Each structure stands twice: as C-alpha cells, then as structure tokens.
C-alpha cells in the first residue's frame, strides 16, 4: 500500500525564488482580458438572438420607466433613496419620479427586455449616471456609504444592461464607461476591509474588469480621439500589474500614447513589480494621482510584506540594526504604522527605534491577518480636498 508523502519543507530562499498567492504577485480568479469585449458574459447571453436584427432604440426619457416605477411602488420595492420625501414611514411609500432609477433585473424566459418604452437612450443613460454620482455617491447626507455603493452599483448594472441591449457605442457610451470605471476603482479603495456582507471585492473586481475591457475595446475600435484615453490606459495597467494581457495591450498602443506621462509611469511601476523591486515601486507610487493610487492600492499590502521579507534575508544578523524611521520611508508609512506592520510579520523592534531583521523570525503572511485599511496613508494623503464628484468626473488626475 502506498504511503502518503510527507509535505516537503520549503526554505525562505525557495519562497523568494517562487512567489506564492501570499506574495505580492497576486493571482486573481478573473484576470484582465484585454482582447475580450465585456458584453460576452451571462448578462448578454439573452440578447445574442438579436445580433442579426436591428438593435432596439429606447424611447424612455426618465431614469426609471413609468411601468417599473408603478410596479415597484405597488410591491413596496422602492429603495429609500427613491422615496418621495415625507412618505418614507407610511405603509406604502410613494415613488419620487425625479429620484427613482431603473434597477438591474436578470434576463428571464418570456420577459421582453427589448421594449423601447423600457429602454433609455444613450443621452438619458449618461444623465442617469451623472445623477447617481452627483446626487447619490457624492451626497454628504446619504450614509452609510456601503449602502450608497450597493444602490449605485446595482443601478449602474441596469445602465449597462440597457447599453448592451441597444448595442450602444460612441462618445456617450465611452463617457458612461469612464465614470463607471472611476467609481468602481474608488470604491475598491474606500470600502477595503468592509465585511463581505456589505462589500464583496471579488464581485466589484469582476465587474470592473468587464467595464475596463469594454472601454479599452472602444478606444481601439473608434477612430475619433478620446481625451481621457491616456488616463484609463494607465489605470488598467496599474490595476492589473503583471497581467500578460494588460502588458501586451500597452505594448501595442500607438507610440504617442505609450510614451505619454501617465502610461510611462504605469509601465515603470509594472516593471518594478515584475523585477520584484518593492522599494522602487513604492517610490514611484508617490508620483501617482489619487485615483491612480486607488487602482494600485490592492497590490500595496503584499508589496510591503515582500519588502520586509527581502530585508529580513538581506540584513539577517543579530548584530545588525536598521533605523525604524528609514524603514518607514521605504514603506511609505508613518513610524507608528511601520512598527505595527513589523510586529505583524515578526520583525523585532528595539526600544531605541531600531529594527533587527532575521530570516528565521520572519512570519509568513499566511499566518497573519494584515488589515490593509490600516496602511492606506500612501493613498489617503493624495486625496486632500478631492470630493467623490471630482474623482468620478475626472478632476485632479495630475501626478507629480
């Protein structure tokens, strides 16, 4: 009878040579597909039968079709953001036609999703997205923001559904996608660390990748110039560091776009990522704009962990001392946050603000839960006076 093999011991040196899921070269279940159109997914399978026919054209001039509004009001399915002020606490709240937005609904057998009366034309879809950003996501009076995000996320899916059914393209489609991508990137940073019942980063990532793929495909197919293309080419690469499709996409960009400041900086950060140089990566990250830093932020925790691992091997000696303040500068963290991070990974701290690195004492990330949200200073410091409205509409994207 064959005996089960004992697990093979893996040295720290081997871990350095072969990064794992805990390493900063993260592997996702939904890698960015630069060659695919976001419309190829479960949501538009119902509409493939219409490919050879003329796409329907929406005639609904309100954010929510009248029939849906009446139906949801009768069935008490109004969100509190859509209720007529003053009726929220009555038995059957009234719908506010100026605040109600068409909700996302899954394609179902026997359901006609191509009725023009229930479809909003591109101009109305863009107005709807602007309302969701300006009056809901950016409102200082609506909270908690997890509920705000959930409402906006669902209504944006409804917008996407209308665009797919009508096969919308052109400038208005690009504008909708750009605002949606900015919102989801910002949300991935702002809601980092929230309980899964309130915010699921995997679902957010899945939809963000689809919107990005669709947007970049439009950039490639359209002959007209898009003034924000440089911004989103850089965001796509920063969000998907190390992704082969993302890198191939950037390499194939026209020379003028590939050599633009934002894309050049993103490529430098991606190169530091591939070369496993967290010190250079964090130094370059200081030059990013706030939204660019939001796109990068999901890689930062693993990057910092790798920096501590590399230094634990390179400076491993009981007689070696490394200044805590200098380590904080390398990690782009305050002294207090640096101390907490060192404790999380088993790096010894002395009373005189010195660090003692030891490859034997370093604790692998799998054995510790590092709360990413506690180490967001490299991103949060860039926000300054930027509001949600500024961020999603593309203001303040300059970098150093």
Automatic annotation (TrEMBL):
<dbReference type="GO" id="GO:0005819">
    <property type="term" value="C:spindle"/>
</dbReference>
<feature type="region of interest" description="Disordered">
    <location>
        <begin position="84"/>
        <end position="115"/>
    </location>
</feature>
<feature type="compositionally biased region" description="Basic and acidic residues">
    <location>
        <begin position="89"/>
        <end position="105"/>
    </location>
</feature>
<dbReference type="InterPro" id="IPR005062">
    <property type="entry name" value="SAC3/GANP/THP3_conserved"/>
</dbReference>
<dbReference type="GO" id="GO:0005813">
    <property type="term" value="C:centrosome"/>
</dbReference>
<feature type="compositionally biased region" description="Basic and acidic residues">
    <location>
        <begin position="44"/>
        <end position="55"/>
    </location>
</feature>
<feature type="domain" description="SAC3/GANP/THP3 conserved">
    <location>
        <begin position="63"/>
        <end position="349"/>
    </location>
</feature>
<dbReference type="Pfam" id="PF03399">
    <property type="entry name" value="SAC3_GANP"/>
</dbReference>
<dbReference type="GO" id="GO:0051298">
    <property type="term" value="P:centrosome duplication"/>
</dbReference>
<feature type="region of interest" description="Disordered">
    <location>
        <begin position="1"/>
        <end position="58"/>
    </location>
</feature>
<dbReference type="InterPro" id="IPR045107">
    <property type="entry name" value="SAC3/GANP/THP3"/>
</dbReference>
<feature type="compositionally biased region" description="Basic residues">
    <location>
        <begin position="1"/>
        <end position="12"/>
    </location>
</feature>
<dbReference type="GO" id="GO:0005634">
    <property type="term" value="C:nucleus"/>
</dbReference>
<protein>
    <recommendedName>
        <fullName>SAC3/GANP/THP3 conserved domain-containing protein</fullName>
    </recommendedName>
</protein>
<dbReference type="GO" id="GO:0051225">
    <property type="term" value="P:spindle assembly"/>
</dbReference>
<feature type="compositionally biased region" description="Polar residues">
    <location>
        <begin position="23"/>
        <end position="32"/>
    </location>
</feature>
């Amino acid at each position: 009878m064959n005996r089960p093999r004992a697990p093979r011991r893996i040295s720290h040196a081997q871990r350095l040579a072969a990064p794992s899921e805990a390493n900063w070269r993260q592997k996702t279940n939904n890698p960015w597909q630069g060659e695919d159109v976001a419309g190829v997914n479960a949501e538009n399978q119902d509409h493939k039968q219409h490919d050879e026919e003329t796409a329907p054209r929406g005639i609904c001039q309100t954010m929510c079709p009248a029939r849906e509004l009446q139906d949801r009001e009768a069935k008490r399915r109004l969100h509190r953001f859509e209720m007529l002020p003053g009726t929220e606490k009555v038995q059957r709240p009234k719908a506010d036609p100026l605040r109600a937005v068409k909700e996302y609904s899954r394609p179902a057998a026997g359901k006609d999703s191509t009725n023009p009366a229930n479809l909003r034309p591109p101009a109305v879809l863009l107005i709807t997205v602007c309302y969701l950003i300006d009056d809901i996501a950016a409102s200082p009076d609506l909270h908690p923001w997890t509920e705000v995000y959930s409402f906006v996320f669902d209504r944006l899916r409804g917008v996407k559904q209308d665009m797919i059914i009508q096969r919308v393209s052109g400038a208005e489609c690009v504008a909708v996608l750009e605002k949606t991508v900015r919102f989801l990137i910002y949300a991935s940073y702002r809601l980092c660390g929230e309980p899964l019942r309130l915010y699921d980063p995997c679902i957010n990532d899945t939809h963000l990748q689809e919107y990005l793929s669709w947007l970049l495909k439009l950039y490639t197919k359209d002959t007209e110039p898009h003034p924000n293309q440089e911004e989103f080419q850089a965001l796509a690469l920063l969000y998907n560091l190390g992704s082969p499709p993302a890198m191939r996409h950037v390499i194939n960009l026209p020379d003028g776009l590939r050599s633009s400041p934002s894309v050049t900086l993103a490529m430098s950060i991606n190169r530091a990522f591939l070369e496993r140089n967290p010190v250079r990566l964090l130094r370059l990250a200081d030059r990013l704009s706030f939204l660019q830093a939001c796109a990068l932020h999901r890689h930062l925790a693993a990057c910092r962990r790798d920096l501590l691992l590399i230094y634990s091997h390179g400076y491993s000696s009981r007689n070696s001392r490394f200044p805590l303040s200098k380590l904080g500068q390398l990690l782009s963290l305050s002294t207090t946050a640096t101390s907490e991070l060192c404790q999380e990974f088993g790096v010894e701290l002395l009373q005189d603000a010195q660090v003692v690195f030891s490859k034997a004492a370093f604790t692998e990330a799998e054995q510790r839960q590092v709360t990413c949200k506690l180490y967001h200073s490299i991103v949060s410091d860039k926000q300054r006076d930027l509001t949600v409205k500024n961020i999603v509409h593309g203001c303040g994207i300059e970098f150093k």
